[in-house]
Fold these 2 entries.
Entry 1:
Amino acid sequence: MQDTKRLMKLGLFLMSPGHHAAAWRHPEVQAEHLLDINFYKQLAQTAERGKLDMIFLADGLALWDKYGSGVSHSITTRFEPLTLLSVLSTTTNLIGLAATVSSTYSEPYNVARSFASLDHLSGGRAAWNVVTSISEEEALNFNREGQLEHDNRYERAGEFVEVVTGLWDGWEDDAIVLDKDSGQVAHADKVHALNHKGKYFSVRGPLNISRPPQGRPVIIQAGASEAGRELAAQSAEVVFAASKDLATAQSFYTDMKERASKHGRAPEDLVILPGIYPIVGRTKEEAEAKARLLDDGIHPEGGLHLLSHFLDYDLSGYDVDGPLPALPDVEEVNGGKSRYQLIRGIAEREGLTIKQLYRRFAAARGHQQIVGTAEEIADHLEEWFIQKGADGFNVMPPYLPGGLDDFVELVIPELQRRGLFRLEYEGRTLREHLGLKRPVNRYEQLRS
Ligand SMILES: Cc1cc2nc3c(=O)[nH]c(=O)nc-3n(C[C@H](O)[C@H](O)[C@H](O)COP(=O)(O)O)c2cc1C
């Protein structure tokens, strides 16, 4: 029996046809499979064969058409995450299924209900990545003229999560009776209205679906600004991060565990998973050639606009062979703050031109890139894991299915050989894979 506490957690950050902005131009990628369910079924089965903890789907609520190249040169057609994961819940058995849903453009009742449904459908494998959303375009699709202020989005998110978890607790575990003899379906005294009235939400409850198998689906958070870290420390169980080097990862890791402990939580209640973008080769040269092939596919206008999008600053018209222009201070930014700082930091530290920066950014969007053999990639992951920069990683294959196949066939066995990753799933739910406790129902706690 393996000691699960000492094992890495690994998620598949599934972005089709891969994380590299030019993945779809890779000769082995069949880009026409973007909306083909069989393609996703196959990827999910590969990830499950690799014993990964979960599949994670990101999401945005607008087409990237602020810049012309958004439609002409980038992949903007994709499935809505919960719909896709509902199907994958029926074609996989053990792997966790994590979907991104925005707290800014949803209502807590709908979100609590959808994730309770996915948790029941999958036998306890659902997770919700709570995002506050970052672009003005998203606001325009939801009856608004512009985004809420950054900190208000997080304040709303805090209350949103409180309502959702309250709704999940609304049914006690043994509320359902289904006694055919007496005709009793449920214990009415074990189904509770929430009667929440707060600044942003007024929700009576109870939910019209019983308590999810995990008690509560796992909560993930990925914002790393001050407000984002506080929300994560208070209510998230998994934190996704983008860290540029081990020192930054370690400082984020320590900070998050300390913040969690201020909220009365144990270090293992919060699992920290930085993103990594691995390009695996049988030799270092082969891996480097794979990276070059992808980079050569970057469309100059598409690359520039992708960077402009994440900086929320139009870089058209600047000399791409020169440095970034003077950009606003982070305090003035109302989009995502931590990624903005990360990109600027990389550009300044390494003295990159705009072109070098967008080429770098088009690959992994600021996450760690590791180009090398399976052993070299395992060395890197082991170092971050052992040196407390991470509890595991959110793996971002550069192109699909090849990048995932390489990771599962070459890197996973190397991690297993080193005793760093599970040989078999030992539990059935995502909470069990991640070593997270099943939350006690608040009403049952009151009774005891
Ligand atoms: C790995 C990772 C995945 C993310 N996925 C999404 C996503 O799918 N949709 C989204 O709107 N934001 C996503 N974000 C952004 C954040 O969750 C957050 O809402 C945003 O960065 C603003 O946070 P900040 O200002 O605290 O940095 C992601 C961030 C990271 C690091």
Entry 2:
Amino acid sequence: VKTSRRKFIAATGGLLAGSPLKTITAESASLAAESNSPPEGQAIIDCQSHLFCPELVGLMEKRQNDPRVFTKEGERYVQMGDWLRKIPPQYLDVGAKLAAMDASGIGMTALSINDPGPEWFGADSAAVARVANDFVAGVVREHPSRFFGLCVLPLLEQRAAEAELERCVRQLKMKGILLYTNLAGRFPDEPQFHWLFARAAELQLPILLHPAKPITSEFVKQYEMISALGNMFDNTIALTCILMSGLLDQYPQLKLVCPHLGGTYIIGRLDHQTQVLKRGPKYLTRAPSAYLRQVWLDIVSPLPMAIRFGYDFMGPGRLLYASDHPWVSPALILAGLRSLRLPAADEQRILSGNARALFGLV
Ligand SMILES: [Zn+2]
């Protein structure tokens, strides 16, 4: 909010340049801007937003194997098999992130690295996690009123992951865990990862699912559909496996977030399959839809009707505004939500109140 206030003053000051009343006017402009800002505690919170970590990009530039970064015709790309994505310089730039936040009135952002996660780096995975988490924590330290951090963990090495989680919570004051929808090919409901759900529930630390290089890459690589379809399939499989595994009965206090409104469209079929056809209800005490309502969903979808369905199904208390910046413009998702003309109190919960409570922000 500070920066937008500064901008406002700068704009007003510009108009009045040369006026003898400049100082007084700047002060009153500041007061006026203050009254136009959302009341304290209501500034928008973005729950999915990434920066590439310069040190990790540098590391990937030196690698011969995936994940690696290379430059072609002046453009930098991150490559994982057939999944190729451009990373322009602003994807590494905190200033560009802050400018995008200001342009949409976003007060705070839950900051995470993007993918690839540490689990793709083999023997270096614990070191990669530390570099990534130190980077995010550093940005948060520089801008404590604008960012809070989500950590990543070297989950294929349990002891290193446990130690890194404790460091992230105790020392780096991280507010959540970014959990990739597959850990280099393994879905997060597998028993080797159950300790993470137990510990997160105990710490009351939200787990935020996030797409990784999708398991289905091979089947969706034609027409460059790995991000469009593959990532969403990965979300759906990871979330559904967690719902079906009984983990949410085992850890009812678990705070789980699924991105991109995941899961809502298939939930009727899942209820029917498990409850009517009795396919796969082994670990369930309730219908899958009941577990889904225990989860939070972020609303990163460019289709307002999809957000509307999420709202109708989940209710106003379980949706979180998020943008997936820099891939998506924060303004696009904001406009989609606002176009629904939800009751003001519900919209406010989605924009900030739910996130505030979920992450324990003061
Ligand atoms: Zn994302």
